[in-house]
Amino acid sequence: MDVDRTTLIGRSLRSATYTVTEVDVNDFLGVVDEPEFVAFSNESGLGEATATATEAARLAPPSFAPFVAVLGLLKTFDWQEDFLFDYRTGTAMFGEQSIQFHRPLRVGEPVAITASISDVYEKQGKSRFDVIEVAFEITGGGEGDRLMSGQQSYILFK
Known about the structure:
Helix content is 17%, strand content 35%. It is α+β, with helices and mostly antiparallel strands. The chain has a single domain, classed as Hotdog Thioesterase (Thiol Ester Dehydrase, Chain A, Roll). A hairpin with a 4-residue loop joins strand 4 and strand 5. It starts with 15 loop residues before the first strand and ends with a strand. The model is unreliable at 44-55 (pLDDT under 50).
């Protein structure tokens, strides 16, 4: 490593927000086939007449969650300040991602994203590169309940 990014481990990144919009979900569904997806929920088990607006809100498909995680996480860091990386002279790639789902996303729901750098290590391919792993948690609704958590990695080539 030219820059010792291991000193970044444990750094908390900025908090960010994202609202699950009807437009984004519809655009997403325009390119992703979700034949078994049911867009409305009645989690209470009550009849439609007694379900609350939140319980009856349109759901985003489960495959939409990684989209939210990627967009949200990109708002939590600055390449230079937080990763010590100049994307104008280096190359960055998205690496692997893992997500644990805790409940469905609802259209119109604002979500909050928090993240921190959980690991940094160097690897060797044709050239050396750094991998920065970011752990995240996404909460939603007015209650701040957990929607998803997981990790994403970014690959930084010099």
